[in-house]
Amino acid sequence: MAIPGACRGSPVIPLPHPPTHGLRSRIGNPFQLALVVLACAGVGAGPGCARFESHPIDLQRSLVTLETRSLGSPELRGFIERSKGERVPEWPLQKWSFEDLSLAAVWYNPELAVARAQTEAVEASTQTAAGRLNPTLGLQGGYNFDATKSGLSPWMPGTTLDLPVETAGKRTRRTERAAHLTRAARLDLISKAWSIRTALRSSVIDRVFLERRLEVMDQQRLVLGQIREVLEQRLRAGAATTQEVSTVRIQLLKLESESSALLRQSSEIHGKLAALLGLSPQSLALANLLPPVASPVPKGDALSNQRSLALKLRADIQSALANYEASQSQLQLEIAKQYPDLHLGNGYQWDQGDSKWSFGLTFELPILNRNQGPIAEATARRREAAAQVLAAQARAIAELDRAADLNGLLQHQLEEQSRIQQELDEQTRRVEARRNQGGADRLEVATARTEALTQRLVLLDLEQRLAEAAGLWEAAVQQPLSASPRGSSARKSFPPAVPISPAPLP
Question: Is the domain of 315 the same as that of 463?
């Protein structure tokens, strides 16, 4: 006999048909009572039953999805527009700013997708923590062999109902702990997004400055080639030595070797950049990436203010603080478990034509164990969580001070090297002017240009290191320094304020 409203697939236990001996009960067949109770339980539980739906992963389909991802997808455009709160005027973008590229990483990056799924799993635990204990329904039965002599029904069916009552606010403590852990998971997701943004910035800077360095080295190659030609001509005329020519040739060979190493490094940077964006290297090959535009690192009071805010508002510090609050709630929960829960019980039995009702109260006697062990563990976990907060702040202080000192040092070095670059460029212009007037030859001009180009490589190295240091400061304060290249105001926060939506899964 099927029970209405019961979950599909639930077993149905057939009940024996009771023998009818003599007098029937005033309440009818006692087994009909049992069926009514079961039916009521099934009707109450049936609508809330979950159904399993299989979602197998098609590896071939997921592979195709990953390989066909691109920076021109309409879903990515919609995400960027929602995040920035403005319409993208052209699509696909001809030039990708760092801000737009960081949003693409938020949309596609697979590690961030895993962190997002883990956050959703933690958020789901709040529903578990807030759940109430279900009552317990029991069915009993008995058979009186002597009752057949009196003509009464020998069956003695009965039911029991146990209502658990949690005491000392245990459910509230569980809910509070789950809420704190959920907040910590969301903050960890923000920290993960920042780490991806920092790695993305570093890769974009590497790619941009590598291209600039190759351009300068190409110019060096042309100038050294001119110097070699002049020296070879002088060597044939007896006006130069073999050592002078060999020195230039060695410089050219060294330059070729450095260029080859940079080209190999370019391939590695391209692959790393594609991995951070969650794209295939082929889909990123034609993308025109703009370098991150960073405002100068603040100084004086502005730097102190940003530093103070970062030490309070950084996602990792707030996450550690949320975990500490969760440990507090866990300790409160373990202390509350010293007080036993109550079980309100009542029962009904049909006994030989008589209806009998009983009730009772049961609880655990806290005599041999007052939950001392879990309380001690929770206390130690709270001390550990407090130490984690201090460790997060200490780590943030080290990162902030290092980034600020490094920016200041590199800024000073860049100013000095820029002054030297200006002097060498001015010297090159004077030599070229003297040559136009017949006071200098090709070798002098080429030599001056070589010095200026060599200094330009030194300057590029400092500019790259300063750009990386600015990225370290941005990651330390977790506030974007970049400005929008199209003139609109930059976003005030990262990740975007809208919910971080994952890219479509296969």
Answer: yes
**Amino acid identity for residue 90 in this structure:** E
Burial (CB count within 10 angstroms: exposed 0-12, middle 13-18, buried 19+), residue 327: buried
Gap between the Cα atoms of 168 and 155, Å rounded: 42
Does 389 reside within a domain?
yes
Does residue 58 belong to any structural domain of this protein? no
Q: Are residues 130 and 35 in the same domain?
A: no
Q: Among candidates 194, 188, 210, which has minimal Cα distance to 109?
A: 194
**Residue 484: pLDDT above 50?**
no
**Is 0.70 surpassed by the pTM of this model?**
yes
Residue with tokens 């080859």: 260
Rounded CA-CA distance 445/108 in Å is: 51
Residues in contact with 56: Cβ distance below 8 Å, sequence separation at least 6, in sequence order: none
Nearest to 351 by CA among 142, 38, 138, 137: 142
What are the Cα distances from residue 203, in Å, to 134, 162, 277, 443, 444? 55, 63, 11, 39, 39
User: Domain tally for the chain?
Assistant: 2
Q: Which helix (H) or strand (E) holds 358?
A: strand 354-363
Q: What is the overall mean pLDDT for the chain?
A: 85
Same domain, 3 and 143: no
Segments forming the whole domain that contains residue 372: 96-151+164-405+415-477
Characterise 282 by phi-psi region: left (phi > 0), alpha (psi -120 to 50), beta (else).
alpha
* DSSP 3-state of 355: strand
Instruction: For residue 442, give every residue at least 6 positions away whose Cβ sits within 8 Å of its Cβ, in sequence order, or none.
Output: 226, 230, 435
Which DSSP state fits 48? G
Q: Domain of 378: which CATH number? A: 1.20.1600.10
- From CA 209, how far away is CA 196, in angstroms rounded? 20
Let me know if residue 426 belongs to a domain.
yes
- Which pLDDT band, with edges at 50, 70 and 90, does 21 fall under? very low
Whether residue 216 lies inside any domain: the answer is: yes
pLDDT digits (tens, 9 = 90+) for 207-231: 999 999 999 999 999 999 999 999 9
pLDDT at 321 over 60: yes
Separation between Cα atoms, residue 195 and residue 347, nearest integer Å? 60
Residues 372 and 450 in one domain: yes
